[in-house]
Amino acid sequence: MNMIKILLLSVSLLVSSAFAETMLVNKQQFTVNNFKTFNGSTIDTVNIGWEAYGQLNDDKSNVILITHYFTGNSHAAGKYAETDPLPGYWDAIIGPGKAIDTDKYYVISSDTLVNASAYDPNVITTGPATINPRTQKPFGLTFPVVTIRDFVNVQKALLDSLGIKKLHAVVGPSMGSMQAIDWAVAYPDMVERMVSVIGTAQADAWLVAALEKWAYPIKQDPNWQQGNYYDGDKPITGLTQSLALITQEAMHPAIFNASNPNHNPLEKAPLMDINANYPVVDWLYGAAEKRTKLIDANHILYLVRANQTFIAGYGNDLASALQNVKAKTLFLPASNDLLLYPAMAQKAHELIGEGSQYDEIEGKWGHLDGIFSIQSKANELSAFLEQ
Amino acid sequence: MNMIKILLLSVSLLVSSAFAETMLVNKQQFTVNNFKTFNGSTIDTVNIGWEAYGQLNDDKSNVILITHYFTGNSHAAGKYAETDPLPGYWDAIIGPGKAIDTDKYYVISSDTLVNASAYDPNVITTGPATINPRTQKPFGLTFPVVTIRDFVNVQKALLDSLGIKKLHAVVGPSMGSMQAIDWAVAYPDMVERMVSVIGTAQADAWLVAALEKWAYPIKQDPNWQQGNYYDGDKPITGLTQSLALITQEAMHPAIFNASNPNHNPLEKAPLMDINANYPVVDWLYGAAEKRTKLIDANHILYLVRANQTFIAGYGNDLASALQNVKAKTLFLPASNDLLLYPAMAQKAHELIGEGSQYDEIEGKWGHLDGIFSIQSKANELSAFLEQ
Fold first, then answer.
1. pLDDT tens digits for A154-176?
2. In the prediction, which pLDDT does B214 show?
3. What is the reported pLDDT for A306?
4. Which of B206, B238, B280 sits opposite A253 (nearest CB)?
5. Which residues form the AB hydrolase-1 domain (chains A, B) (predicted)?
6. Residue B301 and residue A209: Cβ atoms within 8 Å?
7. Cα–Cα 20 to 30 A to A158, which of A75, A299, B120, B302?
8. First CA to last CA distance, chain A
9. Residue B116 has what DSSP assignment?
10. Count of CB atoms within 10 A of residue B70's CB?
11. Tell me, what's the pLDDT at A17?
């Protein structure tokens, strides 16, 4: 089990004691053919996975869409089996009687295109690791660059297929927040409420460069082979560095240090040997390496690019785009976030202007407070959804 | 010219208009034989470069030692020639009539062991890139792991050779602050004043992992060859990534974005081609690649380790170590620093306790405010040195 999962498990155990019932969920598959991407390409067949919690009401007016984060997937709540060690990542706020109350709402969550966890049996996605039916080989870099808007449009196609014409709300953390904001801009008449958790309305120059750090080690790996590694050794070394960077940057130093209470700067091995590592480094990189089993390196590159190309509304003028939003909006950045820092959400909130709500999640996790401390905003979230 | 130098030049031009006179300086070499390192090794011959500004008084009581930052060197102030585009990095505060007034003080600045810029003709250092006289080949990884304490002890030997028994002050930014703090702990009777700028008294677990990010890409580069690359291709790809990370992490997003005002997330090339880069990425990595001409990859690995092993006093108990400090102390972290964030300096300040002074440098640069915004604390620094 990787580090994040262990941490999530600890949090989950604390939270779950308050909720006796396990919500059992299952994965479904959605297919859309001849999908047109924002950059003008066509993907013959897109398959994605999705889950739903609660019951769709008769006039299909009780739908809440959950959009997932960078390394996340559609498993936002519940368990596939009672014996699962962990529920979905936002189980603290999604379920019967919870902030996003599945006794009232029909909650839908889907896997994005180019989902990181291409080899997770519970994820269904389409991306560079997918077999191209025309060649019977993985797409690799022949897969088109896709954007957050494309993620939104696949979700739109899924909702269309279900006859859903209104979203009571769209709610997502981090990259999920990008999708949520873009939903409110792209389909203003369809989105009644939008909640951005630890999010931003635009990838600025700094974020583009910060994200490039996650791509570079993969491209630097000799096994990467311009993305054609599917028949040989995978670029595990590069992917490990990438995942270690992602993990550390999502954590505030306070929680990182608290997770390594026995760290000793004068540890003998690294003091004597330049090749020896500190236990904290083995901890971070060891967890990252374990995660490479389920994650595809090319998918990380495509996710990086989807985030780099993000600007809500996909035009030249973010301010005008956000003025088109008709949804009630709530921004919930995390005070200690060092990745998508609160000023980013603050800016989007201010550009929307009158009526937009803003509050900061307090916590010691940093960016991950959007997952692990979301429970602290349960009442506010619940009230917002009733407005 | 690399990006940092361009930025420094801009700042320097603004500042220098207030000072008509150019202080001309020259580099000297200091040699110490049979140098014993903290980890118990011996280096037969250590050569380092040093500069001095001002005049040593008769009783040698007016010495201020300046200790440099990670990618810095002994060129803290002045110019080698009138035609140099840039003066030393702290020229804004070191010189005649400036905060560290060379009309009063004799200011010494030396290159560290394993200095990053092994190929800079103005740097003299000893490290893995140095020819081992016993083998007539570069030391490579046979060079012992060295620590901040070793940097301090080379400086101590230099001062001993000059007959200097007291330091009016030791002042340094970032890694230079580590040296300054350790000076005050290691030689409490010798150090009268200590100024830590953007510093910390200990590498915590988070910092150790953050620093590892700078080492990993070098080790990942196939040209690295366990440090034996001196006869072949150098690990430029890995070193480039390392220097790009260092540059970005030293800059706050605000200044990073201000430096790239024309960034467009919908730039055509990266939207169409996963291999195409944004101009901001070319800017960051292009500048990093240019810097690889002067910088040795193994030296970066050794600097990373010197920082990772740092705990002032080099014992198990930082609190006790800092209680031994007799110097007057002043801590000047930068409010927006995301690398050695203010809480680190705050902790050291509090552990020293009564009499220690603390103030934050305000600025938009982040960590680099310790260099580029130091002028804003000139009066405070000057007053502290007179106390």
1. 999 999 999 999 999 999 999 99
2. 95
3. 98
4. B206
5. 143-370
6. no
7. A299
8. 40
9. S
10. 22
11. 45
- Per-residue pLDDT, A5: 55
Return the H-helix or E-strand segment holding B290.
helix B279-291
pLDDT digits (tens, 9 = 90+) for A316-357: 899 999 999 999 999 999 999 989 999 999 999 999 999 899
Supply the range of the domain harboring residue B380: 3-202+312-386
Residue A9, pLDDT score: 53
Give the residue from chain A lying closest to B143, CA to CA.
A274
Residues A74, A123 contacting (CB under 8 angstroms):
yes
One-letter amino acid for residue A5 of the chain? K
CB-based contact, A337 to chain B, within 8 Å:
no
Instruction: Kindly state the tokens that stand for A69.
Output: 């984060």
Q: Is B337 labeled as catalytic in the residue annotation? A: yes
Higher pLDDT, B13 or A94: A94
- A87: which 2 tokens? 């529920």
Are the beta carbons of B126 and B45 closer than 8 angstroms? yes
Pairing relationship of beta strands A100-101 and A94-95 according to DSSP bridges = parallel
Question: What CA–CA distance (Å, rounded) separates A46 from B267?
Answer: 26
Please report the residues numbered 190 through 219 in chain B whose beta carbons come closer than 8 angstroms to any beta carbon of chain A: 202-210, 212-213, 216-217
What is the interface pTM, i.e. ipTM, of the complex?
0.90
**Residue B49: in which H helix or E strand, if any?**
strand B42-53
| Concatenated DSSP letters of A262-321 | T--TT-HHHHH-TT---HHHHHHHHHHHHHTTT--HHHHHHHHHHHHT-BTTSSS-HHHH
Interface of B with A in 130-189 (CB under 8 A): 141, 145, 147
Task: Give domain status of residue B34, yes or no.
Answer: yes
Here the tokens at position A133 are: 């039916």
The pLDDT value given to residue B17: 45
- Averaged confidence pLDDT in chain A: 94
Phi-psi region of B122 (alpha: psi -120 to 50; beta: other; left: phi over 0): alpha
Query: Which residues are CB-contacts of A210 (< 8 A; sequence separation ≥ 6)?
Result: A249, A339, B248
Nearest to B145 among A217, A274, A311 (CB): A274
Low-confidence residues of chain B, pLDDT below 70?
1-20
Rounded CA-CA distance A52/A184 in Å is: 21
Name the residue among B203, B259, B277 with its Cβ closest to that of A265. Answer: B203
Of B263, B278, B305, which has the smallest distance from its Cβ to A270's Cβ? B305
pLDDT of B35 reads: 98
Q: Does residue B106 belong to any structural domain of this protein?
A: yes
Q: Do A147 and B271 touch (CB under 8 A)?
A: yes
Residue B273 has which token pair? Answer: 């081609």
Structure tokens given for B327: 């110097």
Q: What is the CATH number for B343?
A: 3.40.50.1820
Token couple for B25: 């300086």
Does B270 sit within 8 Å of A305, measured CB to CB?
Answer: yes
**Which pLDDT band holds residue A1 (cuts at 50, 70, 90)?**
very low
| B30, β-bridge pairs | B48
pLDDT in the model for residue B334: 97
* Residue of chain B nearest A141, judged by CA positions: B274
B10: left (phi > 0), else alpha (psi -120 to 50), else beta?
Answer: alpha
Nearest CA in chain A to B146: A271
Question: For B280, which residue in chain A has the nearest alpha carbon?
Answer: A205
- Domain count of the fold of chain B: 1
Q: What is the pairing mode between strands A131-132 and A137-138?
A: antiparallel
Q: pLDDT averaged over chain B?
A: 94
A271, A282, A344, A368: which to substitute to probe chain B, counting the most B Cβ within 10 Å? A271
Listing DSSP states for B49-88 in one string gives EEEEES---TTS--EEEE---TT--S--SSBSSTT-S---
Q: What H or E segment, with its residue span, contains residue B238? A: helix B236-249
Active site residues of A: 174, 337, 367
Interface of B with A in 56-115 (CB under 8 A): none
- Which residues of chain A lie closer than 8 angstroms to B185, CB-CB? none
Question: Which tokens go with A313?
Answer: 């509304």
- State the Cα–Cα distance between residues A349 and A334, nearest whole angstrom: 14
